[in-house]
UniProtKB/TrEMBL annotation:
Residues 5-141 form the Isochorismatase-like domain. Keywords: Hydrolase. It comes from the Bacteria. The keyword Hydrolase applies. It comes from Fictibacillus barbaricus. This is Nicotinamidase-related amidase. Belongs to the isochorismatase family. PANTHER family: ISOCHORISMATASE (PTHR43540:SF14), PEROXYUREIDOACRYLATE/UREIDOACRYLATE AMIDOHYDROLASE-RELATED (PTHR43540).
Amino acid sequence: MLSQTALLVIDAQVGIIEGPSIGPVFKKEQVLTVMKDAIQQAREREIPVIYIQDLDVGKDDPQQHEIHPAILPLADETVIKKKATNAFFETDLKAKLNELKIGHIVMIGMKTEYCVDTTARAATTLGIDVTLIEDGHSTTDNKVLSAEQIIAHHNCNLHGLDNINYFIMVRKSVEDVFEHKHLEYK
């Protein structure tokens, strides 16, 4: 079983986090702080940081397509471009994780009900445990629910979601989220 850990930063792009057409996301400053802290902790612990960048964001405005300047990748960090909500779909993400012997991903990013949810669920079907940082993802209101409700709903429903032997844990950013706590239950 692969048990190394990586941090996955999902669609942390200017156009989603700041807007104008999609954002700003709920509790923008707070979530950016949590994301910055998680990235810094991963770097200090020499845990790979992998950025996912959605090709649909900012099609008409290259600035909106860029990763948010508060959390830019380092030159040696991987950036994987995707065109679907599932970061594994038609990308080399799974191959990269296999190369690094990653069996556990910690996730932060945007938007909760789309790419964060879909990628987390897909990871478990591919034999990867997921830790979603409870306060490290965000979204915007939709026609039915507020962003706060969407985030709370996903934190509740994704926690414990499993596919045979691999599952999702939702943990607070103040915890040691890089600890592969799933192994205690296997």
